[in-house]
Write a structure and sequence with these properties.
globular, 325 residues, 0% strand, mainly alpha
Length: 325
C-alpha cells in the first residue's frame, strides 16, 4: 500500500506550513494521489454536492432558460401588466408587461458572469502579489504591502459609488474591475505568509540551485502548493462578488439600464415586495439560493483540502465505525 505525493501535492493550506501528512488511507493495492484523496473527501460531503449541483443548474438555467420561453427580456406584453405567474408568463409580468422569467434569467446571467470574473481576477491578483512579495522581500515586499494596506483602509463601497457616474452607460467590465480591485488584499497577505514558509522548503531550494528563474519557481513550485487556499478563496469570492454587485446595483451604482442584474431587479421591485411579491421574490430567491450553494461548496472544499479538519475526521471515524459494524 503506497501513497504517491508529488511536491505540489505534499502541502496544502494546512500542510504547507506544518508538513502534516495526508491522513486518509487508500484502497489496498491502489496508489493514491492527493487529488484523488481530495475528490473522495469532497464526494462524501452531501451538502457540498447539493451546492455544486445547484450552482451548475443555475448556470444552465440562466443561459439555457431563455430558450424555453418565447419572450425576451426586451419584449413587452401589452395585454398583461402586473400579472401574477400563469401559463404564458411563468414568473408573471412587471408594470410594463415584461416577462419576469426572461428578465430574471437575464439578471441572473449578468450577476453570475460578474461573480465568476471578479473571483478569477481577484484570486489571480492575490496569488501574484502575495507570492511576489513573500519571495523577493525587500523593496518589492514593502511596496506591495503598502498598496495592500492602503486598499484595506479605503471604503470600497463609497469609492465605487463615487466613481460610478464616470462609467455610467459604459461597459459593465469596468464594474468587474472595480469590484475585483477591492477583493484580493487579505488573501494576498495570507499568500505572502505561506510563501515565506514555502521558500524554505527543500524542493524550492533545489529549484534555486538548478538555476531556475524566480518567476518559474513561483509559478511551478510555490503557487501550486497553495492551490487549496486559492480554490477556496475563488469559490467564496464568487458569492461575495455577486452580493457586492447586488448591493451596488440596488443603490443604482452597479449594472446600468437598459441592462439588468439581480441587484437592479431587487432594487427596482423592493417597493412591490408586499403588493406584487413575484416581482421581488424570484430575483431575491435566486440570489439567496446561489449564495447559500456557493457557501456549501466552499465549506466542502475547505474540509476536503484540509486533512486536519475536525469535520473530516469525524466523518472518517463515523465511516470506519459503520464499516466495522
Amino acid at each position: 500500500m503506497t501513497v504517491i505525493l508529488n511536491e505540489g501535492d505534499s502541502a496544502g493550506t494546512a500542510g504547507a506550513a506544518s508538513g502534516s501528512p495526508v491522513d486518509a488511507a487508500p484502497e489496498p493495492g491502489k496508489a493514491m494521489t492527493r487529488g484523488r484523496l481530495v475528490f473522495i473527501r469532497f464526494m462524501r460531503n452531501k451538502l457540498a454536492l447539493v451546492g455544486l449541483g445547484i450552482i451548475v443548474a443555475m448556470y444552465l438555467l440562466a443561459f439555457l432558460g431563455p430558450l424555453l420561453t418565447s419572450w425576451s427580456y426586451e419584449d413587452r406584453d401589452y395585454a398583461a401588466f402586473l400579472q401574477p405567474p400563469y401559463a404564458d408568463h411563468i414568473f408573471g409580468t412587471d408594470k410594463i408587461g415584461t416577462d419576469m422569467f426572461a428578465l430574471t434569467m437575464r439578471g441572473l446571467q449578468k450577476s453570475l458572469i460578474i461573480g465568476l470574473l471578479v473571483a478569477l481576477i481577484s484570486t489571480t491578483v492575490a496569488a501574484i502579489v502575495g507570492a511576489t512579495a513573500g519571495y523577493f522581500l525587500g523593496v518589492a515586499d514593502k511596496a506591495l504591502m503598502w498598496v495592500v494596506d492602503l486598499l484595506l483602509v479605503l471604503p470600497s463601497f463609497l469609492i465605487i459609488a463615487i466613481l460610478s457616474p464616470w462609467f455610467r452607460g459604459k461597459s459593465w467590465w469596468l464594474l468587474v474591475l472595480m469590484l475585483a480591485a477591492f477583493q484580493w488584499m487579505i488573501t494576498a497577505r495570507i499568500v505572502r505568509g505561506m510563501t515565506l514558509t514555502l521558500k524554505e522548503r527543500e524542493f524550492v531550494k533545489a529549484a534555486k540551485f538548478m538555476g531556475q528563474p524566480a518567476r518559474t519557481i513561483i509559478a511551478k513550485h510555490i503557487v501550486p502548493n497553495m492551490a487549496s487556499l486559492l480554490i477556496i478563496d475563488a469559490t467564496i469570492n464568487v458569492g461575495s462578488a455577486v452580493l457586492a454587485e447586488t448591493g451596488l446595483s440596488y443603490f443604482g451604482f452597479g449594472v446600468q439600464s437598459p441592462d439588468v442584474s439581480l441587484g437592479t431587479l431587487i432594487g427596482g421591485n423592493a417597493e412591490s415586495a408586499t403588493t406584487f411579491p413575484w416581482l421581488f421574490l424570484f430575483p431575491a430567491g435566486f440570489l439567496v439560493v446561489f449564495v447559500l450553494a456557493v457557501n456549501w461548496v466552499g465549506d466542502g472544499l475547505r474540509d476536503a483540502l484540509d486533512p486536519t479538519s475536525t469535520r473530516v475526521r469525524r466523518k472518517e471515524k463515523k465511516d470506519t465505525k459503520e464499516k466495522a459494524a
